[in-house]
Write a structure and sequence with these properties.
Elements (H helix, E strand, L loop, with lengths): L10 H18 L1 H5 L3 E3 L2 H9 L3 E6 L3 E6 L4 E5 L6 H8 L2 E2 L9 H28 L14 H4 L3 E3 L13 H15 L1 H7 L6 E5 L6 H12 L3 E5 H4 L6 H16 L2 E6 L2 H4 L10 H16 L6 E7 L17 E4 L5 H12 L10 H7 L5 H17 L7 H13 L10 H20 L6 E5 L10 E4 L10 H22 L7 H16 L13 E3 L8 E3 L3 H28 L1 H14 L1 E3 H14 L10
Parallel strand pairs: 1-4, 2-5, 7-10, 7-11, 8-9, 9-10
Antiparallel strand pairs: 2-3, 3-4, 6-8, 12-13, 12-16, 14-15
The structure holds adenosine-5'-diphosphate, magnesium ion and zinc ion.
Length: 617
């Protein structure tokens, strides 16, 4: 591979890149070039100098503090969360200043900020294109931008106040983490018996379940400094900066031990390495540096590394080896009890009417994460404010569940009468099929008020007792319920609409899973043909079978859904009276609760004997 013909791009394209690079250079590198002779010190030194009254002038910037010592030298340090800072500085007699470092001459400044980088960019560009053509790969660029270190920003976040009590549910996670807290509080106890604490623990779970919150709570409980950085912050545009930040982070942590280092979204750097050249070079270096640091430091000093991810399967196995993140802390979506507890934690922060039934709200919010539940409480409070009330009511909360889960209510979007009728039958179709199959969950509430997320109607099904082991029959019933909407449309209007697309998707996914993952088909038996690759984000699956088998799976899936569709169709046909009565009620009221639904169901049953017509479908 000697000559690589590159496609010609318009000249403008290159100009744009150079301009962008210049702007970045000016923003990131110039401050260091124009502040020559500034000594970088750590925050502790700065505080000490403040206390010793060795500071003459000080200037606070967005993310750093530049100051002139009484010795005439210039210093700088990163800015940290420190509420009493100004107070202390004031007491030390330091003068506050807006500009303490003299500007360079304008010509030199222009030279440095525009001409020098231009030369550099062109030079580096040529260097890299040559390297690429030679197919040399590797981290050659790291030396060129070794200045990443001074840009590393690491914060000690104030976590005081956040305790385990602020994290509701998640008892298993808290139990595992409380051992770390104990270790940070009494390291001697562990040392004397010869027990080694794990260096790192990995918090694993779907988004919004409180991983970040838990990490802060550990620091809060143990009352130690909390260094926090997000994986995505490591991945910088200059090669080598990420690795420098990791080095810096651990250096600071070692000085402040005992403490906690928290790496959020660790998958951003800790993804699997794949030996490809270019592209992920930077990330790979950062990861290598992280591994080196983790191996290098002495665990008994009391530095505990916590990391969080919602994509555990994408992590590089090297990260999970003993001595690294060898402890895994599952942080799962809350169950019914957990949801109720989380609602209560957040409800404490707002003015609630007494006697709120949090259990009912939690029941309706099945599947919601902690973050969503916090959002529900806040949404309810906003609703109370909008209505000019002083207290949040049960209705506020229940309405918010729907807002968060099903999109905002949008009453001004008008459905035509015919559309409304079709949607009413469609939704009752789902509910009636669910109700008639004994093992399906009863209906909580149905509404045909359109939501912004595009759903025209919305049937909220509530599991009375959450359970995780589903039988084949229950799954089949679920599929029948999904198809119930379409079946009702077809039965009553003899036409089908686009309204069932989401139902079809869900039914298909469930049917596929039954066959390819749960081993519930006679044809294939207990053979796993699909693997879940992304457990927490949507559950993508990969197929592991031949194309022929894949075709056959499709046929079996079709068959399964068809059978359930027919079942649903017949349930509706056999209960046509109830279908009509319920749809009429929903059409008129736009909303029907589970109790009203059951009332009508039973009344129609008693009053009107079923009219059995000939088999139609
Ligand atoms: P993650 O890091 O897992 O994505 P976060 O910790 O950022 O989730 O959670 C976001 C917010 O959701 C928290 O600040 C908190 O208000 C709320 N929250 C999430 N889980 C819980 C929980 N178990 N108990 C109380 N609040 C929670
Ligand atoms: Mg988080
Ligand atoms: Zn539907």
């Amino acid at each position: 591979m000697n000559e690589v013909k590159r496609p010609r791009k318009p000249l403008m394209f290159y100009y744009a890149i150079v301009l962008l690079a210049l702007i970045l250079f000016n923003a990131l590198v110039m401050p260091f070039l124009t502040n020559p002779g500034v000594i970088e010190v750590d925050y502790g030194t700065f505080i000490k100098m403040t206390e010793d009254k060795q500071i003459a002038e000080v200037m606070l910037e967005d993310n750093k503090i530049i100051y002139k010592g009484t010795d005439g030298k210039f210093y700088k340090t990163g800015l940290m969360e420190d509420p009493e800072l100004t107070d202390r500085l004031y007491k030390s007699g330091a003068k506050f200043s807006s500009q303490i470092i003299e500007q360079m001459s304008p010509i030199l400044s222009i030279l440095l900020s525009w001409v020098l980088p231009m030369v550099l960019i062109i030079g580096v560009g040529q260097y890299f294109s040559k390297k690429l053509m030679e197919n040399a790969g590797g981290g050659a660029g790291s030396m060129m931008f070794g200045m990443g270190k001074s840009n590393a920003k690491v914060y000690v976040k104030s976590t005081s106040g956040i305790k385990f009590d602020d994290v509701a549910g998640e008892d298993e996670a808290k139990e595992i983490l409380s051992e770390i807290v104990d270790f940070l509080e009494n390291p001697k106890k562990y040392e004397s018996i010869g027990a080694k604490m794990p260096k790192g623990a990995l918090l694993v779970g779907p988004p919004g379940t409180g991983k970040t919150l838990l990490a802060k709570a550990v620091a809060g409980e143990a009352n130690v400094p909390f260094f926090s950085i997000s994986g995505s912050e490591f991945v910088e545009m200059f090669v080598g900066m990420g690795a420098a930040k990791v080095r810096d982070l651990f250096k600071q942590a070692n000085e402040k031990a005992p403490c906690i280092v928290f790496i959020d979204e660790v998958d951003a750097i800790g993804g699997k390495r794949d030996g490809r050249i270019g592209g992920n070079d930077e990330r790979e270096q950062t990861l290598n540096q992280l591994l080196t640091e983790m191996d290098g430091f002495d665990g008994s000093k009391g530095v505990v590394i916590l990391a969080a991810t919602n994509r555990p399967e994408s992590l590089d196995p090297a990260l999970l080896r003993p001595g690294r993140f060898d402890r895994r802390v599952p942080v799962e979506l809350p169950d019914l009890q957990g949801r109720e507890a989380i609602l209560k934690v957040h409800a404490k922060k707002v003015q609630m009417q007494p006697n709120i039934d949090f259990g009912a709200v939690a029941r309706a919010a099945a599947g919601a994460s902690g973050a969503e539940l916090a959002n529900i409480v806040n949404e309810a409070a906003l609703r109370a404010v909008r209505d000019g009330r002083k207290l949040v009511t049960q209705a506020d909360l229940e309405e918010s569940v729907e807002v968060i889960i099903a999109g905002y209510q949008k009453k001004n979007r008008v459905l035509s009468d015919k559309e409304k009728m079709v949607v009413a039958y469609h939704e009752i179709g789902h509910a009636l099929v669910a109700a008639k199959q004994s093992e399906s969950a009863p209906v909580h509430k149905i509404t045909i008020i359109p939501r912004t997320n595009g759903a025209l109607g919305y049937t909220m099904q509530v599991e009375e007792n959450e359970h995780f082991l589903l039988t084949k029959e229950e799954l089949e019933n679920k599929i029948a319920t999904f198809t119930g909407g379409r079946a009702a449309e077809s039965l009553i209007f003899n036409q089908i609409t686009t309204g069932a697309s989401n139902d079809i998707e869900q039914a298909t996914r469930l049917a596929r899973a039954m066959i390819t993952r749960y081993g519930m088909s006679d044809e294939f038996g207990m053979v796993a043909m699909e693997q879940l690759t992304n457990q927490y984000l949507g559950g993508d699956t990969t197929l592991a079978c031949s194309a022929e088998t894949a075709n056959h799976i499709d046929a079996v899936v079709r068959n399964l859904i068809n059978t359930q569709y027919h079942k649903a169709y017949h349930i509706l046909k056999d209960n046509a009276n109830q279908l009509h009565a319920l749809a009429k009620y929903l059409y008129e009221h736009e909303t029907i609760t589970g109790d009203e639904f059951m009332d009508i169901l039973h009344k129609t049953e008693a009053e009107l004997p079923q009219i059995a017509e000939g088999e139609g479908y």
